[in-house]
Amino acid sequence: MAGENVSLEGMSESERNGLAAMHVRMLQDPAVRRDYLRTIKKLNPTFTAPELEIDAAMEVERKAIADREKALDERAKKTEDAVAAMAAERAEEKARAAWDQLKRSPIEAGIITAEELPALEKLMKDEGFNSTQYMQAAKFMKAQQVMAAPTPGALKPFRMPDNKELKANPKKFFQDSLTEGLNESNARRVAGKFGQ
Fold first, then answer.
1. Whole-prediction pTM
2. What's the CA gap between 53 and 56, in Å, rounded?
3. What is the C-alpha separation between 155 and 76, in angstroms, rounded?
4. Is 80 part of a structural domain of the chain?
5. Which of 37, 79, 136, 148 has its CA 20 to 30 A from that of 109?
6. Do residues 195 and 149 touch, judged by C-beta distance below 8 A?
7. In this structure, which long-range contacts are made by residues 88-97, counting pairs with CB atoms below 8 Å and at least 24 apart in sequence?
8. Does some domain include residue 2?
9. C-alpha atoms less than 13 angstroms from C-alpha of 69 in its C-beta half-sphere
């Protein structure tokens, strides 16, 4: 029967009335009305029903709205990703600037020179300083250098004057004492310069 032209001429009046009643009932039942109209449209493509045309137009509009929403969502996601990337880049720049400032702090404080920075970083690694302790490590390094400065051999312990020498030749005693004091003073000054 599918695809055949069905004629009502060979039907009895009661059969025709039954078909007409079923047709009316299907058109009036909201649960099946649209499906029934679509079925008629499939069988007869020239058939028009305003409801089907409205449904088709609404479906086209729904698809267009969904496509616009999807495009907006994608654009919003790209914007969010770009903002997040910019924020991460700024945070990285700030961290790098803070790190550079931390590394330069002992140089700016005059504790070490820029040329001593690699030696300082090696000392920090060897001595177990953490990566934020540049100032402490620089002070430690300078303290090690001062402690390691050689003591001049010209420094002698203080001695009490010998009364015999003083009585025998007072002028020579005072000249020797003065020379010894000046030599010791010069040795301390030289040691102080090199010890810093």
1. 0.39
2. 5
3. 79
4. yes
5. 148
6. yes
7. none
8. no
9. 6
Low-confidence ranges of the chain (pLDDT < 50): 1, 154, 195-196
Residue whose tokens read 């000054």: 189
* Cβ-based neighbour number of residue 137 at 10 Å: 23
Structure tokens that stand for 31 in this block: 């649960």
Q: What's the token pair of residue 173?
A: 């005693």
Domain extent at residue 99? 53-148
- Among 190, 117, 107, which residue's Cα sits nearest to residue 149? 190
Structural Rg of the chain based on CA atoms: 52
CA angle at residue 77 from 75 to 80, to 5 degrees? 110
Mean pLDDT of the chain: 82
Q: Which amino acid is at 135?
A: M
Tokens representing 102 are 């931390």
